[in-house]
Amino acid sequence: MAKYLLVSFKTCPWVQRAAIVLREKNIPFEFPHKKVPVLRIDETVSLFESSAIAEYLDETIAPRLHPEDPVQRAVNRAWTDYVPTFASSVTATGYAADGTAYKAAAEKIPAAFAQLERALEKQGAGPFFNGAKYSLVDAAYAPFLQRYVFLDRVKPLGIIENFPRLKAWTETLLKRPSTHSFPEGEFEALYRANLKRRNVYASQFIADVAVAAE
């Protein structure tokens, strides 16, 4: 079996996506924390870009997380391609420097949520994106839905409640052990500490915490 070394800073959502895929496939891997996100294979090959890493892992390690049906697989790939836009929209409040920027960022979230709500309605009854079977789409969105939940706890946004399918999907993903690289409470504390360290607008709503490096 190949040896996998996943390199990333602790709170990187993109590498978290690759870690989720490895855990879903029950593949042992090392997880050193540095600044450059990369998957190192057998100390000879380095892969970057989370989507490429996820696709490689799915093509080379069973069980397959992509659907077997080529049309459904193409639909799934289209939705994973939407992840960067979605992530930018739903986590931007965590980067806003002031109240005006925060409000503007929050106003973009409903449109992104609506896109996923419609997709989930078309895809089936859940609990996952494709229905009963976990997929790469679930792995791709889990880190960013998790961060939305963290930000909602810092300063309630009250948006996801208007999207029942998305809310149920989020709750399902956050209950899944593979989503978590650290115990959830520990990771949320680390995420809050990083908000404080960056001194963003939302950080004023967090009680004083020990500032941690990424």
Task: Explain this structure.
The chain is mainly alpha-helical and 214 residues long. The chain folds into two domains: 4-60, Glutaredoxin; 70-179, Glutathione S-transferase Yfyf (Class Pi), Chain A, domain 2 (Up-down Bundle). It is built from nine helices and three strands, in the order E-H-E-E-H-H-H-H-H-H-H-H. It has helices at 13-24, 50-60, 70-81, 83-90, 99-106, 109-123, 136-154, 164-175, 184-198; strands at 4-7, 38-41, 45-47. Strands 1-2-3 form a three-stranded antiparallel beta sheet. Helix 1 (13-24) packs parallel to helix 2 and helix 1 crosses helix 7 (136-154). It is globular.
In short:
The protein has helices at 13-24, 50-60, 70-81, 83-90, 99-106, 109-123, 136-154, 164-175, 184-198; strands spanning 4-7, 38-41, 45-47.
Provide the fold topology:
Layout lengths: L3 E4 L5 H12 L13 E4 L3 E3 L2 H11 L9 H12 L1 H8 L8 H8 L2 H15 L12 H19 L9 H12 L8 H15 L16
Antiparallel strand pairs: 1-2, 2-3
Helix pairs in contact: 1-2, 1-7, 3-7, 4-7
Features:
Glutaredoxin; Glutathione S-transferase Yfyf (Class Pi), Chain A, domain 2; single chain; 9 helices; mainly alpha; 3 strands; globular; disordered C terminus; 214 residues; 5% strand; 52% helix
Would you tell me which CATH topology of the largest domain applies?
A: Glutathione S-transferase Yfyf (Class Pi), Chain A, domain 2
Whole-number average pLDDT?
93
CATH class categorisation of the largest domain = Mainly Alpha
Fraction in beta strands: 5-15%
Structural class: mainly alpha
Encode the helix/strand succession as letters. EHEEHHHHHHHH
Relative helix content: 40-55%
N/C terminus separation: 31 Å
- Please list the strands of the largest sheet in the order they lie side by side: 1-2-3
Total DSSP helices? 9
Overall geometric form:
globular
Known CATH architecture of the largest domain: Up-down Bundle
Q: Give the oligomeric state of the chains in this entry, treating copies of one chain as homo and distinct chains as hetero.
A: single chain
Q: Quick one: how many beta strands?
A: 3
